[in-house]
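#onboarding

Welcome to the new folks! Below is a worked example of what a typical request in this channel looks like: someone posts a single protein sequence, and someone else replies with the predicted structure as tokens. Don't worry about understanding the tokens yet, we'll cover that in week two.

Example request:
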Amino acid sequence: MVDLEAMKREIEALVVAKVFYNSREDVAKKLLFAFIELGEAADAWKKGVRRGGCCGGVG
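Example response:
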């Protein structure tokens, strides 16, 4: 069974370790980055490009 709270703590530790944006004010930036990644993934999917797997990146 997946422990959501443990996953949230692990993700937060990674964010802090990599010095990514980590405040409430940065939510808009995170959403922007997520949409950019989704757009790149959609473009690659349309072209039939497939690289990596989960978290391996598509674009």
